[in-house]
Amino acid sequence: MSASQPKIRLKDLRKSFGDKVVLDGIDIEVGEAESLVIIGGSGTGKSVMLKCVLGLLTPDSGVIEIDGRDVLKMPGREREAVNRRIGMLFQGGALFDSLRVWQNVTFALMQQESISRSAARDRAIDKLAQVGLGSQVADLWPAELSGGMQKRVALARAIATDPEIIFFDEPTTGLDPIMADVINELIRDTVNKLGATALSITHDMASARKIADRIAMIHRGRIIWAGAASEIDASDNAYVDQFIHGRAEGPIQMEVRR
Amino acid sequence: MTAVFRPVGRIFLDFLATAGRIVLFMSNGVSHCLRPPFYPAQMLRQFLDIGFYSLPVVGLTGLFAGMVLALQTSSGFERFNAEGAVAMVVALSVTRELGPVLAGLMVAGRIGASMAAEIGTMRVTEQIDALTTLSTNPFKYLVAPRLLAGTLMLPCLVAVADIIGIFGGYVVGVYKLGFNPAGYLSQTFDVLEPIDVISGLTKAAAFGFLTALMGCYHGYHSRGGAQGVGAATTNAVVSASILILCFNYIITELFFGI
Questions:
Q1: ipTM over 0.95
Q2: Which residue of B130, B135, B136 is in closest CB contact with A94?
Q3: Going by DSSP bridges, is the β-strand pair A197-202/A35-39 parallel, antiparallel, or unpaired?
């Protein structure tokens, strides 16, 4: 293993649903302890790409390497072992509404090791404190929480097993700008503290600037630009410029009938 | 000419594809019933939900089925001076047919719908994806406990429905039609063979399995938010009910056909 080996590498990843080509040859690398944010409009294939890396969808062709090993060719058990080192924050939080907050946070821990209920609850309160929630939240049901609190609980659940890689799917969607910034800060902090590699997808530029070391832009199933977060304003790429300034006019044509 | 055959072929192929998917889903679900890890808390919840909380509905169904059966047979058999056969008809119809079929249909409505709605909501809010990322197999966690509970609990419910149904026939027979209580009971016990009850309970196990399978399958494959979950719920109940009636004939043929 060389020191420069990327943590995650996607090579020529392709996926179609029927006639519709969603991923048309994605090539991207994420370095160790780096935070890469992939930006792009709705329906450009961001979520599908993330689901392929997580193993929720199987790509038609291509390579997904984690620590230099192709996860698509691994037997099921090894793949599960890799997945155990990955945390995921879902767009809507995806908290289990039949379980209390603390049971949600320690869900993976309870599956992996035999740990008593009270010990698990203590661990959950620890993790909740890391995302700025008090212990009184632990015994509530997810439905009793506000959107911002649900996101925080979901983040606590994603980091509960101290993963090496964390995925963020639209972490700020549905939050007001202030809560969005709080969540962005929290993501930045926790990722730094864990020393984890982060891969996020978003269409929120404020969020992308805040949490990214590097930014890549996806359009029509391909990565059309990638570079350091600080360079995005000088990308010289008409697509990127249109996206970060949020203009309706430009090379990206929305499929809207007028 | 092709315009006529094309839709027919399409429907036939769709039917085969769905049947294949259901068989794959079933074998996957059953194989996870047999392999650890198991989730005792999930199983207990399903056993309670299907077995215990369905008791009132199934009990009332059995009671009124037995009562109306006694009333109808007596008014019909009067013409042949064969009122003495009422106890026999009630005992045989309830244990062989009405107990399992009516209880199965009631449980299909109650449990099939709730399974499809719960799993469907988990699907559209990404909770099923979240299970996978938290190193938990959704088939083991969601499907296997429901299949087991359905298969094991419905026979218990039907045993209760049989007893209450025969009791309903007895109440009408003795208090309304004026039969001798001891005579009614001895006729009932004379005519009942173990095979009558066993065939009914076998049917119940099959119906419980089918109901749980349809609830899980349609919920698992639901998509598109509230409307999708609604459609999944309807499909689960309708397909479970039809399968129950269809398999009722097949199992009867296997037990009593010549």
A1: no
A2: B130
A3: parallel
